[in-house]
Amino acid sequence: MGLFTRKSVDELTAEAHTDTLRRTLGPFTLTTLGIGAIIGAGIFVITGTAAAQFAGPALVISMLIAAVGCAFAGLCYAEFASMIPVAGSAYTYAYATLGELFAWIIGWDLVLEYALGAATIAVGWSGNFVSILQDMGIHFPAALSGPPGSMVALPDGSTVTGVFNVPAAVIVLIVSAILVVGIKESAGFNTVIVVVKVFVLLLFVGFGAAYINTANWHPFIPPNTGTFGAFGWSGVLRGAGVIFFAFIGFDAVSTAAQEARNPQRDMPRGILISLVVCTILYIAVALVLTGIVKYDRLNVPAPIALGVDSTGLTWLRPVIKLGAIAGLSSTMLVMLLGQPRIFYSMARDGLLPPLFGKIHKKFRTPYVTTIVTGIVVAAVAGSLPIATLTQLTSMGTLLAFVMVSLGVWRLRQTDPKAKRPFKTPWMPWVPLLGAAICLAQMFGLPLTTWIRLVVWLVAGLVIYFAYGRASAERLRVLPQ
């Protein structure tokens, strides 16, 4: 009992067989959930910033570093998801391996990944939506498309002060409403969008490859400017930490474990296949983009659209924008699907109020946490700039990956005989290297992001010691 109370794998497995959530997801749907979560603002927005400010054409190397770290972490997630098919994802895995305190820390940390990640996506969605309206001759009020105090550019080059990002907030509320209705309907909506955005990226790679100028790839690793992270190999590392945001999402598949028909078999497949598909697609897009446009010109809100403009294929520009809207929509959906299920698991364990564990009688979804998450994320998306949100999301996710990687290694030592339908290969090197690579990317992020992470975790510990610890203890001692 106490701070380091752990739940056994048997306890967690028993919880997985409760009938509170509806099991409707198969292997294809789980894979498209992963792809839907991964392909979003990272490839459509962050790619240009990472190339222009940090890595240059060596963005491809940054992507490979991020992908390797994600692959190692993905193998660890796959083992846990097959062993413990419960909705809590990394939070539940930490409860089984490191104890209640660490479970709370990682659960609180996951808010940075899923909730702030959804807010980040919503801001990117808003920018693309307003741009499409402008192309159609519809001018959305600029002051209502940016966070308070920000300078929003007008088509004539002048600027106005932002009041609130209304499109970002509205799309969050719409997606949240879809998620309340049901997981099957949400997953079907996501699958359609995934097909659209993958097709759009393949169009860009296929047509753009003919316009590559190899001179744009030289120097492949631009010389460092004298500042850590500004090109050179330190820039490649900083670029990996930033572009890591583009790979976030495959782990969100694990939050739907209690709604999978055969989680022991299908969860590992959904996690690993989605990661492989997106990594191949990302590298192809990065090579074509930096081959078409010199890297120092890519620091724009829509780098892929800029690449299309550089080819002269004007017919492809609206297609790319629509693909970006589709990509951002499905990523937002999966992020907003994951966060309520983390809260649901924490409430079930007593760490959050029982209200957060309520399931809708008709839709069989955690509707209270979905509604609360939607309202909070909508407010954040309307109020904060995308740069702050992106770095915090990457930091929170990297910390979760470190904890999961170390957790797999730890559980192999403490419970070596537990049933593992999927086993992480090459133990202990895969989890240890996964943790090391993710830590290296964390150290590549700015100091201000570290400070925000520490402040966030301290706030979470205050809530845990003021409410969660005593509440969980009371729940454990209640008669069964």
Briefly, what is this?
The protein has about 475 residues and is mainly alpha-helical. The protein has helices at about 10-15, 25-40, 40-55, 60-85, 90-95, 100-135, 165-180, 185-210, 230-245, 265-290, 305-310, 315-350, 365-385, 385-415, 430-445, 445-475; strands spanning about 150-155, 160. The protein has one domain (about 10-475): Amino acid/polyamine transporter I (Up-down Bundle).
What's the SSE blueprint?
Blueprint: H1 9-16, H2 27-38, H3 41-55, H4 59-83, H5 90-97, H6 100-135, E1 151-153, E2 159-161, H7 166-181, H8 183-208, H9 232-243, H10 263-292, H11 303-311, H12 316-348, H13 367-383, H14 386-414, H15 429-443, H16 447-477
Description:
This protein is mainly alpha-helical and 480 residues long. It has a single domain (9-477), classed as Amino acid/polyamine transporter I, CATH 1.20.1740.10. It is 67% helix and 1% strand. It is built from 16 helices and 2 strands. Strands 1-2 form a two-stranded antiparallel ribbon. β1 and β2 form a beta hairpin.
The proportion of residues in beta strands is under 5%
The structural class is mainly alpha
Mean pLDDT: 85
CATH topology: Amino acid/polyamine transporter I
Distance between the termini: 17 Å
CATH class: Mainly Alpha
Q: Over all CA atoms, what is the radius of gyration?
A: 22 Å
Strand order of the largest sheet: 1-2
Low-pLDDT stretches: none
Main β sheet profile:
2 strands, antiparallel
**What's the domain count?**
1
CATH superfamily: Amino acid/polyamine transporter I
* 3D shape: globular
Which series of helices and strands comes N to C?
HHHHHHEEHHHHHHHHHH
CATH architecture: Up-down Bundle
